Amino acid sequence: MHQNEIIAFNHELLAWFQQNGRDLPWRRTKNPYYIWVSEVMLQQTQVDTVKPYYDRFITDFATPEALADAPEQSVLKMWEGLGYYSRARNLQQGVREVVEKYDGKLPDDKKKLLELHGIGPYTAGALLSIAFGQPEPAIDGNVMRVMSRVFMIDADIAKAKSKKQFEEVVGKLIAEANPSAFNQALMDLGAMICRPKRPDCPNCPVRRQCKAYSARVQEKYPVKSRPKKATVRCYAIVLVQDQLGRYLIEQRTDSGLLAGFWQFPMVECETNSDLLPAAFRKLASVERLDFHYIHRFSHLVWDLTLYRVDQAIDLPAGVARKWVAVDEFERYPFPVPHLKVIDWLKNLRMNT
DNA sequence: AATTCGGGGAA
DNA sequence: TTCCCAGAATT
């Protein structure tokens, strides 16, 4: 792209953004900490999903110090339902580092930002440009899609090494005068006009600079390989109550999937067949309940069946467990599939 | 370089 | 159903 085209691209993109850019809660603040929170929440998560979480989060954890001092469980509870919970844990750890090393003020230095937990290339670029006005690219899925079309880049955006190409083209394009608006304009363009499917090219401010549109091949971009299929695991979820009517729950390990979350005990089964899971066969009283739920993660599928037993079965040792009343569930972070179980239980209690 | 991390929105 | 989402950390 020639220099005059670059200037035209910037001018038309930013003019469009001024008129059509989204009014979002995290765009109404200049507080780098709030922008940081928003950027982490927005990773792999749509804007409308994030909004209520963002509002609650910055209300309860209004300062880096407040987040640094909070119990991790309360942070996870705040994040409950949003997914990718290591984001929350890494954000808190990163904030603790900022409080200790930088007196609670986010550094405006790329190298220092990248050393913080939970801040990778995208988030560093977003913070440098949006919070500190530096001309750094912030390459996310939106930007790769837009640039793949504008320049007809055939690199597979699912591959890690492809990102370098997009950094280079954005680095040449980025408006030095207003990198914050430039990066956010690209994101809005990707979300509103240059959509994954059926892009709205006639209303695109940069269609005259877009190679794919000129060739009418915009639907061919971006090139993206498909992920492999998710594997299925079957579990029996165990409901067991003590004499006070409290339910047994357990805490997942502090690493891996849903780390630190609480759940009803889960026993992995061979299949979800009508046969009783092997772990239950010695019990006198086992009732299969009318709750069957398929939960799809990105890389994993849980096939869940609910059982009620009258005594604690042999559960693995070394796991934190406790008896908790239904009314106390809200104190603990639960993954969504177990929130469904809780809903089911509450409905049951209401109808009996 | 590939895999592991959640959950929901949209067509 | 499938794809995608303001990705980062781990292997």
Question: Mind explaining what this structure looks like?
Answer:
- The protein is of the alpha+beta class and 352 residues long.
- The chain folds into two domains: 218 residues, Hypothetical protein, domain 2 (Endonuclease III, domain 1, Orthogonal Bundle); 120 residues, Nucleoside Triphosphate Pyrophosphohydrolase.
- Helices cover 41% and strands 13% of the residues.
- The chain contains 13 helices and seven strands.
- It has a four-stranded mixed sheet, with helices on one face. It has a three-stranded antiparallel sheet with strand order 3-2-7, with no helix packed on it.
- A hairpin with a 3-residue loop joins strand 5 and strand 6.
- Helix 2 runs antiparallel to helix 8.
- It is elongated, with a radius of gyration of 24 Å.
- The model has no long low-confidence stretch (mean pLDDT 95).
- The structure holds a DNA duplex (11 and 11 nucleotides).
Helix-strand pattern, N to C?
HHHHHHHHHHHHEEEEEEEH
**Helix run count:** 13
Structural class label: alpha+beta
- CATH architecture of the largest domain, please? Orthogonal Bundle
The side-by-side strand order for the widest beta sheet comes to: 4-1-6-5
Radius of gyration, in Å, reads 24 Å
Could you tell me the strand content as a percent range? 5-15%
Tally of separate domains:
2
Helical residues, percent: 40-55%
CATH superfamily of the largest domain: Hypothetical protein, domain 2
Mean residue pLDDT: 95
User: Main β-sheet, in a few words?
Assistant: 4 strands, mixed
Ends apart, CA distance between termini: 70 Å
> According to CATH, what is the class of the largest domain?
Mainly Alpha
CATH topology of the largest domain: Endonuclease III, domain 1
Model regions low in confidence, pLDDT < 50 over at least 5 residues: none
Q: How many strands?
A: 7
Keywords: 4Fe-4S, DNA damage, DNA repair, Glycosidase, Hydrolase, Iron, Iron-sulfur, Metal-binding
Catalytic activity: Hydrolyzes free adenine bases from 7,8-dihydro-8-oxoguanine:adenine mismatched double-stranded DNA, leaving an apurinic site
Family: Belongs to the Nth/MutY family.
Pfam family, one: NUDIX_4
